Amino acid sequence: MQFKQINWFALVGGVLILVLLSVSFYFPWWQLIIGDNLLKVNVSPVNTNFGLLGTPFIIPLIWALNLGSILTFLVSGIVMVIYAFNPMKSYSKDLLSFAYKKPLYAVILCVAGLLIVIFALRAALGVSVPLTGTGSVILPSSLTLGMNVSVICLAAFQWSFWLAIVAAGLCIAARVYHTKLFSTPKQIPQTTASTQQITPTI
Which of 10, 21, 53, 156 could cross-link to 174 by cystine, CB 3.0-4.6 Å? Predict the structure, then answer.
């Protein structure tokens, strides 16, 4: 196999997806800390967990969604690597079309999900949680025996989130590279040659 036939964007992007899958188990994409270890939220598509007063717990529905994301990342990364070494095959474009969008969708859904939860908390409980940065959260009076209790919270996207953006960018670059490299050339209209009249000789 010639190296010039490898789609290097797809190869690096596929490997990075698999690396991202591994690190996202241990390093969240987004983290929220409320109070002094009162509540800790770690969010990533493959491992979203919570900690209340230092005690970790998970929600079964979120765990099921994480499991689906694990399979999606795994298949997407493997397919991208397979495509990268076989970009000229007849099925290569289908493989690329299936896999390259997955990291971008994960980033978009992660941010959209966080925004929805933040707005829902504000509307339902009156709790204002920042997407990034520090803020002050007033706990619901139902949890504080009628007293007004304000705690400091810190929210931030972690380095693994930016790694996901890089992986998504490389996968999109692989799709653009495929289009430029293997697009069919434009058809040049054939010009009709001037016909020469041949006069019969007697």
Answer: 10
Distance CA 145, CA 148 (A): 9
Tell me if the domain spanning 3-182 has CATH number 2.40.30: no
The residue whose two tokens read 């987004």 is 30
Strand partners, 49: 42
Question: Are the C-beta atoms of residues 29 and 167 closer than 8 Å to each other?
Answer: no
CA separation, residue 182 to residues 77, 146, 177 (Å): 22, 67, 8
What does the block give as tokens for 28?
A: 């969240």
159-182 vs 92-99: helix axis angle to the nearest 10?
150
In SS3 terms, 128-176 reads as CCCCCEEEEEECCHHHCCCCCCEEEEEEEECHHHHHHHHHHHHHHHHHH
| pLDDT tens figures, 157-197 | 999 999 999 999 999 998 888 777 666 454 444 544 444 45
The set of residues, in sequence order, having a beta carbon less than 8 Å from that of 137 and lying 6+ positions away, is 34, 35, 127, 128, 129, 150, 151, 152, 153
- Six-digit token string for 130: 């920042």
